[in-house]
Amino acid sequence: MDDGETPLIDAKGLVKEYPARDRPGGVFRAVAGLDFQVGRGEAFGFLGPNGAGKSSTMRMLGCVSPPTAGTLRILGMDPARDGRLIRARLGVVPQEDALDVELTVRENLLMYGNYFGIPRRVVKERAARLLEFAQLEEKAGDRVEALSGGMRRRLTIARSLVNEPDVLLLDEPTTGLDPQARHVLWDRLFRLKQQGVTLLLTTHYMDEAEQLCDRLVVMDKGLIADEGSPRELIERHSTREVLELRFRLDEQDQATGKVRAVTGAREGERVEVLPDRLMVYTPDGEAALAAVTAAGLAPVTALVRRSTLEDVFLRLTGRSLTD
């Protein structure tokens, strides 16, 4: 966010607690004190594994779950006092599609417009534009139950835009979709971003965060581990390239020691040991692989790739996003 710009969303010390299921009278702290700001027109992400506190944060931002502590201002208003006014200016895409499967695609949009008291003529005009935006014109008269998963997600996003919101909240927008459907959805979200819509999304997909987010926070156990653009985070916490090595299970322990010895002598390199592979973080993956093979090691597979947000998360938390 640009310095001096009034944030669209401003959170300080944000905390969310729930009664602990396994401790009568105890509490579980899902969000443990978040500070972040989001500017108008930004695409801002919360990256982390399940249980990191992402969805609890989104429910507070959606004004459906009050913070336990801290301060939160959305569109300059206090959710505790102005929740109804804020919700009227938000679009929400939940993890699970909550569409009426017995209605047609067009009827889902028209009915949702009625909830906001939008005149029927206006809703019909918007529905036509949103059907085109979501690439669902040919399905307008079909019942929702006949749509694929990707089409349902596009309809859910289209429905969330009926009230022309200032902020669009997307909770794990592409979970469960196949790669092609995910890329189509990314294209739709990128178009919204180009139109100046402010996007807030949670995801545990590193490529999704890199594709869509101007800035993001890496979350773990209810806390922010770091914040920045995808490029800034990668440059701060990882190397330019990563060499992934897989060895036979009966060779892995011995190979790990040798790889550490080889890379320990090379400037700017380090090794992370995962259950199924070794990760050599290096400025030059091909040179690191040549050093490994020159030491007499013969990995089953070797892959040189660029660093990603997955590597950032591993560096910050000691575990992968899929753990």
The largest beta-sheet arranges its strands as: 5-6-7-3-8-9
How many domains? The number is: 2
Q: What is the alpha-carbon Rg in Å?
A: 23 Å
Approximately how much helix is present in the residues? 25-40%
Give me the number of helical elements: 11
Shape: globular
Q: Write the CATH architecture name of the largest domain.
A: 3-Layer(aba) Sandwich
Number of strands: 13
- Within CATH, the superfamily of the largest domain carries the name P-loop containing nucleotide triphosphate hydrolases
Structural class: alpha/beta
Low-confidence regions: none
User: What oligomeric arrangement do these chains adopt?
Assistant: single chain
N- to C-terminal separation?
A: 31 Å
Organism: Sphaerisporangium corydalis
Protein name: ABC transporter ATP-binding protein
InterPro entries: AAA+_ATPase (IPR003593), ABC_transporter-like_ATP-bd (IPR003439), ABC_transporter-like_CS (IPR017871), ABC_transporter_ATP-binding (IPR050763), P-loop_NTPase (IPR027417)
Subcellular location: Cell membrane
Characterise this structure.
This protein is α/β, with parallel strands linked by helices and 323 residues long. The protein folds into two domains: 226 residues, P-loop containing nucleotide triphosphate hydrolases (Rossmann fold, 3-Layer(aba) Sandwich); 68 residues, Alpha-Beta Plaits (2-Layer Sandwich), CATH 3.30.70. Helices cover 36% and strands 25% of the residues. It is built from eleven helices and 13 strands. The strands form three sheets. A six-stranded mixed beta sheet has the order 5-6-7-3-8-9, with helices on both faces. Strands 11-12-10-13 form a four-stranded antiparallel beta sheet, covered by helices on one side. Strands 2-1-4 form a three-stranded antiparallel beta sheet, with helices on one face. Strand 8 and strand 9 form a beta hairpin. It is globular and about 75 Å long. The mean pLDDT is 90.
